[in-house]
Specification:
Number of helices: 1
Largest sheet: 7 strands, mixed
Radius of gyration: 18 Å
Distance between the termini: 18 Å
CATH topology of the largest domain: Elongation Factor Tu (Ef-tu), domain 3
Number of strands: 13
Strand order of the largest sheet: 11-12-7-8-9-10-13
CATH class of the largest domain: Mainly Beta
Order of helices and strands: EEEEEHEEEEEEEE
Strand content: over 45%
Shape: elongated
């Protein structure tokens, strides 16, 4: 998995800013985990531009019309200023995240883990997790190519952050 040089290894990407929303300088925001309460109250984050420029800002997120999530970024109070932040990523140090509860984990802690079948066959490494209508899809790169695995209990038998992922024998299809 290729690392993005804009981000330090100890940083976690929370989402990215999109287009302006309304006339007060708010922006639509895409959060990688929209259920997380992490940005429910304004907090300090690092904003990283597509070109790698960085700035610190206080960001709070609220729900908007429908399923939209809206971000208010400190110092941004017009649609014109907001438009300049479209595409910027929101990142925090890994240490700023709350500890996961027992049996829970952060997706970023799984990326790169070795994946094997219940029978012991090495299938590759987890490259990406793609949200897909309520069920995440694990993309595993291995000797047989890409494998797409729905993250369902009968397919993903065991997840051990820092160690491995164990799949059922028939889990996923190779591309």
């Amino acid at each position: 998995m290729a690392e993005d040089p804009r981000f330090a290894p100890d940083e976690v990407r929370l989402g990215h800013l999109m287009a302006p929303f309304g006339i007060r300088g708010e922006l639509r925001v895409f959060l990688y985990n929209p259920d997380s309460p992490l940005l429910g109250r304004p907090r300090s984050v690092t904003l990283v531009s597509p070109a790698g420029e960085r700035r610190t800002a206080t960001v709070g997120v609220r729900t908007g019309a429908g399923k939209k999530l809206i971000a208010q970024v400190s110092g941004v109070d017009t649609p014109e200023v907001a438009a300049a932040l479209g595409g910027w990523e929101l990142v925090v140090p890994r240490a700023a995240l709350p500890r996961p509860k027992p049996g829970e984990y952060y997706q970023h802690d799984l990326l790169g883990l070795p994946v094997r079948s219940a029978g012991g066959r090495e299938l590759g490494h987890l490259r990406e997790i793609v949200p897909s209508g309520g069920i995440d899809i694990y993309i595993v790169d291995g000797p047989g190519g890409e494998r797409f695995v729905p993250a369902l209990r009968d397919r993903v038998l065991e997840v051990v952050p820092g160690s491995h992922i164990l799949l059922a024998e028939d889990a996923g299809e190779e591309a």
